[in-house]
Amino acid sequence: MTLSTLPPLAARHAWHGAINPLHSTVYFSPDITKEFAALGVTDRVAVNLAHRSAALGAVGAGAVTAAFYNYRHDLVARHLPALWETVTPARALAARLRAADATLRRLLGDDTVGSPELAEAADLAMRATEGCTRHGRTLYSAHADLPVPEEPHLRLWHAATLLREHRGDGHLAALLIAGLDPLEALVSHTATGKGMAPKWLKAIRGWEQSDLDAAAARLRERGALDADGALTAEGAALRERLETETDRLDAAPYEHLGATGLARLAELGGRFVVQAVTAGAFPGDLRG
């Protein structure tokens, strides 16, 4: 086993603070809504499913439910594969890239988008992706087949997407090992204060309050939640073990980038994320 050359938790902090939020700016952007409405897709859930699963091709509900892990299958099946009769995966991907362009320009401003620092961050993030692996990584591997955009801000967004899905695919493996089903994973994550609020789990993932309540009951039986729905010490340890295993499975791209490069990417990306959040990239009630 190769010993890490990175400071403890450096990759995790960079992913949470600088990489995943940059990718995720598109999810709540009016630009993605506008782009898909022009293609005849107006349902918010359908838009979400289309732009995130399009890299897989015109697949059905089963493949997407498996790859996404924590969406209600009935919700996915309501839209797929029928959605592909309205918009092809290729058109969905093109619409998403146009939305990413508009979103980043609006949130960061032209000066930042055209800056040497953003181009540097794009180069660092793309270098990190050279360390990613395809095996067992369904969403990452599908996105890795897509062409790399030329413009720096879109290369940065593309790289953030690859790194996001690479860690996400590994996280699903860690969830299976930890024995957390989709709802238990969501409810326990919300209890950390870092996951989505129940409002959004119901609106985007398709779950009912009764589903969330049942998952909370199972977690209480496991000793992970207390009577008020807060994480117990055992629950907090479970979530930390989960993140540690995810870190291990996702170490390769950041080891490839190296400590100096990772620190610089975290610095630059974190700066861009602060700009985006300040400009209103995410709903104020998103977190649990």
Automatic annotation (TrEMBL):
Stored Pfam families: HTH_67
Name the record gives this protein: SalK
Species classification: Bacteria, Bacillati, Actinomycetota, Actinomycetes, Kitasatosporales
